[in-house]
Amino acid sequence: GPNQYKIFSSGMNLQSYRTFVLQNDLRRAIERKEFSLVFQPRVNMKTGMVTGVEALLRWNHPNLGCISPGEFIPLAEGSGQIIGMGEWVLRYACAQLRAWREAGLPPVRIAVNFSAQQFMQKDLIGNIRRILSDTQIPPELIEIEITESVILKNEKNIINTLMQINEMGIWLSVDDFGTGYSSLNYLRRYPVNFIKIDKSFVQDLSYENSNSTALVSAIITMAHNLQMSVVAEGVESMEQFNILQRENCDEIQGYLLSPPVPAKEIEVLVAGGHPY
C-alpha cells in the first residue's frame, strides 16, 4: 500500500515451518521418550567435593537431531507444555537419585529448574509430594531453582508456594541472580537457601577488572549476611576459580570442572571421592 513496505526472505518461511513442526512434535516428545537429562556438577570450594548436580533437559528430535533448550523451552512455555515437561524432569531426576542411592553412591542433591507457569498449577505441592513418595526420595536431596523473573509473575501466590516447598524440606535457589528486575527486598522475605551468580558476571572476573570483582564480592557478602550460600555459574578459568575462592564463594559450577554429562559420568565423579 502507499507509504508502506515489508521485508521478506525465504528464511522467514523456513523458520516459521520449523517452529510449527517443533510445537507439534513437543506434544508427543515425552511419550516417545525423546527427552533425556544431563547433569552438571556443583563443587564445594573448601572441600573440592561434588555436593550436588544441576539437571538439564535435552531433546533429541528423531528428524532434526538435538534441539537447543534455548529453542524448545520458550515454545513449551508459550504452549503450556512446560508444566508436563517440568513434572517429567522432577520425576526423572528423583528416579535417578534413587538409582544412585541403590548403587551405593554418596548422596548428592539434584537441582531442577521451575518456570513461572509451573508455580501457577493448582496442585503443584501435591504433585511434588506424590513424586517424592513414589520414588522414595527425601526432600532434602531436591533443590528447586527459580529465576528472579518468576517471582515477578505472581508474587503473592508464589511466595506462599515457596513457603510450603521450604516447609517440606526442599532447598530453594535463585538462578541468574543479578540479571532480573525484582527488588532485593524479596531476599529477606523469601525462604531462599542459595543465590546463583549469573555467568555473565563470572566471565568478566579477572585481576585487572576490579569492578567485576567488587560486584561479585558484594553479592557474596550480602548473601552470607542473609544466611544464604552462593554458587558461581559459568566458571571456565583458574583465574576465575582463584578469585571466587579468595572471595569466599561457597560452590562453583562450570566447564572448568565439567560440562553437563550423562548420569554414568556423574557417577564416576561422585563415587571417586577425589576432590577437584
What's the alpha carbon Rg, rounded to whole Å? 20 Å
Strand order of the largest sheet: 1-2-4-5-6-7-8-9
Mean pLDDT: 89
Number of strands: 9
Helix share, percent: 40-55%
The class by helix and strand makeup works out as alpha/beta
Q: Give the topology string: H per helix, E per strand.
A: HEEEHHEHEHHEHEHHEHEH
Low-confidence runs of at least 5 consecutive residues:
none
Number of helices: 11
| Shape label | globular
N-to-C span? 65 Å
Quaternary status: single chain
Largest sheet: 8 strands, mixed, barrel
Strand content: 15-25%
Structural notes for this entry:
The chain contains eleven helices and nine strands. The chain has helices at residues 10-29, 69-79, 82-102, 124-135, 148-153, 155-168, 185-189, 199-202, 210-225, 238-246, 263-272; strands at 35-44, 50-61, 65-67, 109-113, 142-147, 171-177, 194-197, 229-232, 251-252. Strands 1-2-4-5-6-7-8-9 form an eight-stranded mixed barrel, surrounded by four helices. The model has no long low-confidence stretch (mean pLDDT 89).
TL;DR?
The protein has 276 residues and is an alpha/beta fold. Helices cover 46% and strands 19% of the residues.
Secondary structure: elements and pairs:
Elements: H1 10-29, E1 35-44, E2 50-61, E3 65-67, H2 69-79, H3 82-102, E4 109-113, H4 124-135, E5 142-147, H5 148-153, H6 155-168, E6 171-177, H7 185-189, E7 194-197, H8 199-202, H9 210-225, E8 229-232, H10 238-246, E9 251-252, H11 263-272
Helix pairs in contact: 1-2, 3-4
